[in-house]
Specification:
- By secondary structure, this protein is an alpha/beta fold.
- The radius of gyration is 23 Å and the shape is globular.
- Helix content is 44%, strand content 12%.
- The strands form 2 sheets. It has a 9-stranded mixed sheet with strand order 1-2-6-5-4-3-7-8-9, with helices on both faces. It has a 3-stranded antiparallel sheet with strand order 10-12-11.
- It is built from 17 helices and 12 strands.
- Helix 2 (25-34) packs across helix 3, helix 7 packs across helix 8 and helix 15 (329-337) crosses helix 16.
- The protein has helices at residues 9-19, 25-34, 36-44, 67-78, 83-92, 142-157, 170-179, 201-210, 225-238, 252-262, 280-287, 296-304, 313-316, 320-325, 329-337, 346-353, 357-369, and strands at 96-98, 120-124, 131-136, 161-164, 184-187, 212-215, 241-245, 267-270, 291-292, 344-345, 373-376, 379-382.
Length: 383
């Protein structure tokens, strides 16, 4: 094991990334209870379960946790741990590490609780804008691919970050569609210096220029089969909503959608021909209550009600930064509550903005005079 600086949050987080498999909840429990540095120091001492602090030896029901198995998983990697080597490998491909608590850290990942990653290895830059995950079958149809491309192109054009897994089929179609009009983020099952599939390297290079390629594993880790399912939980958590376009009844794409549902993310599914095996999973999702979506506007609606504050409002308005910079707090909240591309009612604005209808009526009249919104009878929309 190469020397390790336990006083460095970067070294500690990267060490955990190299010791555990993605999504290891036992490590998450240990890190939360002891703190990352103290927990790492304990593991580096090559402990036995007998030295585990009594406060975390038992679960909430008072039963012993399977710590022996967890320790046995982690110890083989302790001797080969070399954080400096990993960081040098990342530097060679122009990447950087993002840690929890850093301004660039996507706090949505904290919803994964004990399964949250210790660090993100990033090539490119993460987005603070609204994010929609688009997933689906690897063995996709031409119709599915064109649907994914069209959805991604239109959504990315509105400033939405399209999130997927870089794989064949729907993933790649969504990434390529987004690249023609905006940005996209690809989560990898392996390290960011070992991108997979290699036939998509040109696409990954383009993604890195305007978006990001991201992994929770050290740069040269291979994209092992068991890491794809763990990767899917990051897509679900990082996205503010997820949509599936073509999926068999048992697929990784549906696992992503189910994980998004567990995390209370809005989810949608695109229907296909009733005779198509590629769409059976989507139809099953729709029967079970997932929102049916048939166009990019309907996908966009999945995140309309969770807050237009996810968008860079100055960039979304043709009025420019001048008019918006002069808005009062109430006026900005009202503008914030307006959908980007369609009209809405005063009642809906009041509900989303948390203001009274009388105040909304008064302030929208002012916004109309400022040239920021247009009032059309009982509806209001952005200019």
């Amino acid at each position: 094991m190469a020397p390790l600086d336990l006083t460095s949050p970067l070294h500690v987080a990267c060490a955990w990334s190299a010791i555990i498999e993605p999504g290891d909840e036992a490590a998450g429990i240990l890190r939360q209870q002891l703190g990352d540095a103290r927990a790492l120091e304990w593991i580096l001492s090559k402990p036995t379960v007998d030295t585990l602090p009594s406060t975390i030896a038992l679960d909430e029901a008072g039963r012993p946790r399977p710590w022996t198995q967890a320790i046995n998983r982690w110890l083989p990697r302790v001797d080969t741990l070399n954080v400096e080597k990993d960081l040098e490998a990342l530097d060679r491909v122009g990447g950087h590490v993002v840690l929890p608590g850093h301004p660039e850290w996507p706090t949505e990942l904290d919803d994964l609780a004990f399964a949250a990653p210790s660090a993100l290895w990033v090539r490119g830059s993460l987005s603070a804008s609204a994010r929609i995950g688009i997933v689906g079958a690897r063995a996709s149809t031409a119709l599915g691919n064109s649907t994914a491309r069209d959805f991604a192109w239109e959504l990315a054009r509105e400033g939405i970050d399209i999130v997927s897994g870089g794989a064949f089929g729907i993933d790649a179609a969504a990434h390529r569609g987004a690249l023609t009009s905006g940005r996209t983020t690809a989560f990898m099952a392996g390290g960011v210096a070992n991108l997979y599939p290699i036939s998509h390297l040109d696409m990954f290079d383009s993604i890195i220029e305007t978006g990001a390629v991201v992994s929770e594993s050290p740069p040269h880790w291979r994209p092992a089969r068991w890491r794809f399912l763990a990767r899917n939980r990051l897509i679900a958590a990082y996205s503010h909503a997820c949509v599936v376009i073509e999926a068999a009844t048992r697929s990784g794409a549906l696992a992503t959608i189910r994980r998004a549902m567990d995390l209370n993310r809005p989810v949608g599914a695109v229907p296909g021909p009733i005779t198509s095996a590629s769409s059976r999973g989507c139809h099953e999702m729709i029967r079970n209550g997932v929102t049916l979506v048939t166009c990019a506007a309907e996908v966009r609606e999945l995140i309309d009600d969770i807050g237009e504050h996810l968008f860079d409002l100055d960039q979304q308005s043709p009025s420019g930064t001048g008019a918006l910079a002069q808005l009062t707090q109430s006026q900005r909240r009202i503008f914030d509550a307006l959908p980007v591309k369609r009209a809405t009612t005063v009642a809906k604005i009041a509900s989303i903005a948390g203001l009274g209808t009388t105040e909304v009526l008064r302030e929208t009249a002012t916004l109309a005079m400022k040239g920021v919104v247009i009032i059309e009878g009982e509806h209001i929309r952005r200019v």
